[in-house]
Task: structure prediction
Amino acid sequence: MRAAVVTAFGGPEAVEIIETDVPEPAAGQVRIKVAAATLNPVDAGVRAGAFAGLFGNAGERHGLGWDAAGTVDAVGTTAGAAGWSVGDEVVALLFAMGASLGTHADYVIVDAAAVAKAPTTVDAVHAATLPLNAVTVTQALDLLDIQKGQSLLVTGAAGAVGGYAVQLAAHRGISVTALARESDEALVRSLGAAHFVTSGDVEAGSVDAVLDAAILGEAALEWVRDGGAYVGVIPQGAPASVRGVRTDAVSVTPDGARLAELVALLDEGVLTARVAETYALDDAAKAHARLAEGGIRGRIVLVP
Result:
């Protein structure tokens, strides 16, 4: 089978397509024949060596891709007991940091507990954008622990993570202020934002909490009221607490049950899966180059 990997850190040209054996699922795992897999910023970080030393080094093989949509192709000895059978259409989240193979491949092995039934209202390309980004948001909202009627500012609200954050928070009855470019105001309001601001418009201490999808750090922390909460999206990258503000950063954990809840919200129309562009798996390096250019609304998706 084919898989996109890096063995030497660098720019988009570092991505290579290799031929490797089709992996076999162990107990408690399923093998998925990948129909679509999202390209996320974390993949660019792996490719560039941002996590070198923590999750492997140059010269080793690093897989790319965290989330996928496809069909169960084989099950381990206990995966069937978990409810999965060959032929099931699914979405899944793989914690790919340090893995030698990720979801940017023809087949991927995933823990059965990280899998959910695929949405019925969108195709596999759109479904593939859900797992990593939406699960990250739900776990970030859990850390923020804000309640109905409280206020949340989402930075980078027009992005893939930010967009899901606006929709999920608004669905919970939280008053959402979206921070984005002026040209994105109509978009973020359509996602459920009650208020819209650009970075120069935010008053210090004006919201109960910030979900910092744009990775603004200390600047975003200033917008939280005394005793409020801040959560970022870079593990261990939260700024130091000030004025009694709780600060944390989400480190996403695969969770099939939570993913199933998100699939249901997608099918109900609460969530919107946004695809910017698609590329063939063989053109993964070109997809990385497009991601590096920026200006993307939604996600790039690779199709084997």
